[in-house]
Amino acid sequence: MNSNMKLFPIIFISVISTIGFSQKTYEFDYWVEYKVTYYKDSVKIKNRPFREKDSTFKKILLTNSKQNHYLAIVTEVDSITYTLRFSDNDGVFMQFEILKKDLKSSDYLNVECELISRYHNPFKYQTKNYDFVLMTDTTITNNSYQRYKLTSIKPKNQRKLKLGAEYYVIDMNTDFHLPILEFSTAYEEWKTTKKLPKGILFEKYFIDFYNHLDSKEVLVDYHKINKEILIDKDCVKLQNR
Q: In this structure, are residues 103 and 128 in contact, taking their beta carbons and an 8 Å threshold?
């Protein structure tokens, strides 16, 4: 366990009346699980560690199908512990370790002020440099998927900065869910253009400037849940000063 990260003490709230009026509530109605693979490097890239072998891990997203400006990303620390990283593009960030059994069994998580910090996306201006581009549709095991890529629209920048492109393969049978966008620039671009259709990502992958597959995320499972993260609104006010 990371000694610099606090293990989050779970408070299970069984009576709704115990929740104070000053609390802000984040609701999650889907648990979405991916298998993530980072591939070994074939080309050394400046300012990035060279990967000597492939690595694979599981990632869980706690999402709200009707609101996509926030989400929680859950990854495994060890056999009993998760790291939960939450970000709200409207200005809130928190990260802590939590026991797996507590996350799965608790409907409400009260988060202490000391774990909350201000979130600011310094790359909002990048929306003028990137765009979602529609690719050809594809069919996998009789299911239809739409493919998009998020890419720089300025060739000069692509060459100078050695920019790659991120590809999104969207399950069109899951249009009950708004796009799930972890990358802040992708979210800001979607908010500006609304080009990306509704649906859970069946697959996401990144092709680097040298046309090599850098990473891939493949959908493993998703199911309905009913969970909430609760924070004191005053914590956010203090962090915004």
A: no
Its pTM stands at 0.86
DSSP states along 2-37:
-TTSPBPPP-----GGGS-TTEEEEEEEEEEEEEEE
Distance CA 119, CA 24 (A): 16
Q: What does the block give as tokens for 118?
A: 């201000």
Give strand pairing partners of 94.
Answer: 86, 116
Pairing relation of β-strands 213-232 and 201-207? antiparallel
User: Rounded distance, CA 205 to CA 186, Å?
Assistant: 14
Tell me the HSE value of 67 on the side-chain side, using a 13 A CA sphere: 13
How far is it, in rounded angstroms, from Cα 32 to Cα 221? 6
N-terminal to C-terminal alpha carbon distance within the chain: 32
Question: Dihedral through CA 169, CA 172, CA 176, CA 177, nearest 10?
Answer: 0
Mean pLDDT per 10-residue interval, the chain, length 241 residues: 52 39 89 96 74 92 97 96 94 93 92 88 82 85 88 90 93 95 91 92 94 95 96 72 48
Percent of the chain as helix, strand, coil, to the nearest 5: 20, 45, 35
